[in-house]
Write a structure and sequence with these properties.
about 140 residues
Amino acid sequence: MLAARQRPAATRGGVELADIFRAYGESYRRNQPLPVSHLRVMRAVERCRTAALGGHMQKCDSCGFERPAYNSCRNRHCPKCQSLAKVRWLEKQKSELLPVGYFHLVFTLPHELNGLILTNKKILLGHLFKKSGSLSWFWLYLVFA
């Protein structure tokens, strides 16, 4: 019998990111150039809570039923491993919000720059954040002055 994490998503009650990565990840990696960091995340999520990472047997104290409990990948990008950490982080962030209105600004770049950004993240995103911050202050000055 397959463990719950190894059964197809339909028998578990929903599709998980790991199911998609396992089904289509290899083909996607063959056809799309990805940074090494993305490849590592995909492989970690694919292997998370499967026999590939090892585990132990859990035994019910009442009836003696045993089932395998597989180890997690502990990757910070894995939705299974980081769901509790995400909830804690969000609660902490909410507690630090000031009782004032907030604006959400989105700055986008042309799709054609994606490859360049991915290979020079630190420098180019640093410039983007610096310039978008300056533009935000300028916009606030125009609106509220």
